Amino acid sequence: MKALELKFENEDGKIVTYSIENPIEPVDPAAVTAAMDVILAQNAFTSSGGDLVAKHSARVVERYSEDIELV
């Protein structure tokens, strides 16, 4: 499973991550930047460390899991 992680800095200077599962690929950096700008401008999210104040980074992560059969 892939996820797009949007990372922001909050008022406490800590990094806050929001994940979006199954992003459209290839991911458009300009669209991601624009979406993050809208999130900041509309103060759409908050965190325990206060409002989001700046974009930090974005990345696509892929998670792989395999069940282990217990004997």
UniProtKB/TrEMBL annotation:
Domain of life: Bacteria
Pfam families to which the protein is assigned, alphabetical: DUF2922 (PF11148)
Name this protein carries in UniProt: DUF2922 domain-containing protein
Organism, as annotated: Ornithinibacillus halotolerans
